[in-house]
Amino acid sequence: MADLTPLAISVLALLEEKPMHAYEMYQLLVSRHNHRIVKVRPGSLYHTVERLAGQEYVRAIGTERAGNRPERTTYELTPAGREAMVRRVESGIETFVYEYPVFPVFLAEAHNLEAEDAVLRFRRRIEEMDFWLADVDKAMAGAKARDVPEPYWLAGTYVRAQVAAERDWLTTIIERIESKDLEWQPDKTQ
After folding, report:
1. Each residue of 85-100: pLDDT tens digit?
2. Which InterPro entries does the protein's record reference (predicted)?
3. CATH number of the structural domain spanning residue 70
4. Degrees (nearest 5) of the Cα angle 162, 135, 23?
């Protein structure tokens, strides 16, 4: 079984629901706010579908053309594709893998900024996070209002908890810098 990317898992999961063409997959990922958890662009989505077809995880079942729009190929999930998706989800859930996010790298070098500059940038990040959290809250409220079962938007609650925890941690760091509890620019001669 080839390792499946997050986007490939999402494509296979969509095709588990029903056959569809790549543009429909893209629209569903965006309308369901899955683009908040999976980086998706139309070009990368088409490439992923082609790769999955080459692996025989999906197969084309027809093409259609509506008006002067480009021809669209409809795909369905194969039994091998369903098995690969399920196995990848199983292993991804049970196996912890540190994913090396980039923000800790910036934090490791934040000491190179003046304290006031770092605080300003931390505050800007918190503002962005608050905006993002409000958007996620709105999306989850919409899912609840449409009676979408919680297992379908469980990832949203997880990501929201992560972002809220980071925001709260940053708020504490700002407080510690401003109160001088966190010595920002220690003597580097030691």
Report:
1. 999 999 999 999 898 9
2. Tscrpt_reg_PadR_N, WH-like_DNA-bd_sf, WH_DNA-bd_sf
3. 1.10.10.10
4. 100
